[in-house]
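Hi all, long-time lurker, first post. I run a small reading group and we've been trying to get comfortable going from sequence to structure in the token notation. Rather than ask abstract questions, I figured I'd post a concrete chain and ask someone more experienced to write out its structure so we can walk through it together at our next meeting. Sequence below, copied exactly:
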Amino acid sequence: MAHWLVKSEPDAFSWDQQVANGVEPWTGVRNFMARNNLRAMKKGDRAFFYHSNEGKEIVGVVEVVREAYPDPTAESGDWSCVDMKAVGPMPRPVTLAELKADPDFAELALIRQSRLSVMPISDPHWKAICKLGGWKGK
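-- Answer (accepted) --
Happy to help. Here is the structure in token form:
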């Protein structure tokens, strides 16, 4: 199983909306690297749900329940989306500030490529962030 981080601005689509909607398509990605990351996701992969802009923190964990398919919101171009379902909230949100303050996260894509909306997370970083946030799931 691979691990990821997906970003959403909470005023556009929040963790609470993800939970309320159950399964939700992750649409609107218009960056080629992020699109390719969506296409690399497999059913059962897990991702941190990150509130960008406002909050700047990891607030939950989602799971891929449908692999990449054409994004129905794209007016043109070769864009993809995946379907995600909420697994659970992060017991303690993990902020961008605390990740930046820890040199162990210097190579984390969230730090190095801060504008990327869908990014891979290494297994060591996944485990360390789960520990910081008190996440006991896989």
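A couple of things your group might point at:
The chain is about 25% helix and 35% strand.
Residues 3-133 form a domain with the ph1033 like fold fold (CATH 3.10.590.10).
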